[in-house]
Structures are given as C-alpha cells and as structure tokens.
Amino acid sequence: MMHYYPEDISQENLKKLMRANVCAECGREVRLFLDADSKIYIACSGGRHEGIAREYTPPIEDYQSNIRREIEMEQTQGRETSRELATIPKQGQLTQPQAERILSLVYPNATKDEILRTAIFCQDFGLHPLANEVYLIPFKGKNVMVVGIPASRKMAHALKGDFSFLDDSPRAANEEEIVKQFGKDSEEADANIISITKLQGVGGNLAIGFGLYPKKDSPYGTDKGNTRRNMANIRSERQAMDRLPGRALPRYEVIDATYAEVPDVGKVDTSTGEIVEEPVEAEFKEVVEKPEPQTEATKSKSSPVVEESNSNPPEPVGGIDLDWLKESAKSIKWTEKTLTTWIAAKFKVKGGLLEDVVAGLSPEQRKDVVKEIQDRVDMA
User: Fold this and answer.
1) In terms of residue numbers, what domain contains 35?
2) Under 8 Å CB-to-CB from 169, ≥6 apart: which residues?
C-alpha cells in the first residue's frame, strides 16, 4: 500500500478521517504524518504500516429507528396507508406476503408480477421497502426494481462477509491510480470523471473498482446536490463489491435516494440504475382522510382539545391537555421525547420541549394531533 494523502486537509476533515478509520493492516488508531515534501498523509500510529480502513457495519435496527420509520411513512404515504401497514414490522426480516402487502400499497400502479418478484427479492435478502432499501421505478411502461446504496452494502456484507473501505474510498481516483488502470493520456480519463473504491474483505482480500461518469453529462438531482462525482462513486463501489471474493451478488441497479424524490424519481438507466431523465408520473398519491361525521354520542364525549373560550380557568398549552397527551403516549409505548419528535417532524414545528412544540401548533394541527394519538391509542 501507498501513503494515503487526503485531498481535503482542513482540520475538520482530518479529524473526521481519524475518527472513522484505523490502520488497514493492524487495526490501530491512525495519525497524521508529514512526508519529505511536508505533505500531510494518514497512516498507522505505530509508524510501521500504510493505508487506512473504515469498517462497514450493518445498520442497527432498534425501537427508535422503528419510530422514525413510522413517522417517515406517515409523511410520505399518508395516514390511511400507514394504518393499513400498522401490523407489519417496520424493520427486520419480512415474509413474502408482508413484503407484497407493503409494495402493493406503496406502488399501486405496479403489476402483480412486479410486486411478486420484488417481494421475493426482499425476503431472500432481508430488505424492507419502507427502509430506503428497495424501490419500484417507472421505466418504459414497466416498473424497474432498484436498491438504495445502504441496501447494496447490506447485501454485500451478507454475501461476502465483513469488509472495509480503504483509503477513504469511494473517492476521486488520483493520477497515479488512473494511469495504472487506463494508461497515460487515456480516452477514459479524457472523457470521464473517474472514481475508485478499494475494499478489503475477509482474510485481507483486496478488491478495487473504478467508476466512470461522462464529463459532458449532467446527472439527475443536481438541484439537490447530486454530482458527476457521486455517480462515479456509486459505479466504482458496485464494481469493487462484485470483485470481492465470496458468493456472487445478484444483478440489481443501485440508486442514491439522497438526491431524488423517491419513489417518484424519474426514469432509470437499467444498466446502471442511475436516473437519466426528468420525473414521470408519481407512483402514489397521498390519501386524504375524510373527517368522520359526528354523532350525538361522539359529541358528548370529553375531548382532549380545549376549544377557544373566554372562561377564566387557564387554558392547557396549545389548547391540548398535556396530561392526556403524555398518558396516551405511554399507552402506545412512546416516550415523551418520541412524542415531541413526532409532532415536530410531522407538523414542522420548532421547539425543544413538548410544551414548546405543542404551543406552536395551529388550532387545526392540534386537532389533528389529538385525533391521530387517539387513533393509535384505540389501535393499541
């Protein structure tokens, strides 16, 4: 291995690299060194080895991640769809019927065969359609299955075993790496942005992948921060994963959902999984729930929402009985922090404490909060 010279030598980036990486050979902490030309490089703190490694670890799925996923699902899929999926796990391994149920609700325009193939894929590789792991994208009159970058790494880990990213890759390939791979003054370097991914797998096996993206092309999602470099990085990572020893990865396309409106991300290049055209018709529409007609019985029930009045007793914060709200949260196994995060995220209200967030709600929003919490209590 060669010295690793970071392109960005700002103090913030150097600290980040040293926190995230260890020595690629012995696993010790890394530190900064200066070479004979006073250029900064990062290497083993023991001074004997070169190369740095960042170990890939599968995402942790816990109660908090489940709550975040539930909140995201309500925001993107609508309350009615969220209710229909209430009994299906928001994380972990799905059965084929569970995956089919999710996919049919999220992608109502997909055919039964497309749903079935994707559901089988989810079951086989432990993927979840609600976890930014697998999508059905409209392309030339059909729906193409693509997976997100986190899912691609998760599958590679399951099939290839433990692996680490070397030398802060995926990143831009340097001149020496480009010449070694493609030759001096190559057509590839002239026409493309070139990235490199270096992986170290089980037993120290190395795999190197190169990703090329045309300099003349502009990727989808540039308005959200996407770049040619990002697309080249995706391609290089997939090639390196394919080259790692171990069980072969299935053929699938990879998408970076960070820069796209998912699932309405537009058309996809089926050879690479990258978005190449403007968005097409949305895959789903949020279902707006009609208010239930009130009967005399429901009108007579005590409501946790306090209507506006000129009465002398002090009004609860934001017009909502906080004691009722906290007790209801406990009954659905939410902490006060989870409740506060849910309200703030769903209604885009700022504030650190529950009282602050509730106080920022409009009269209509406070009624929506009460209704949704009551619905959850009833379902529990």
Assistant:
1) 1-51
2) 195, 196, 197, 198, 199, 236, 237, 240
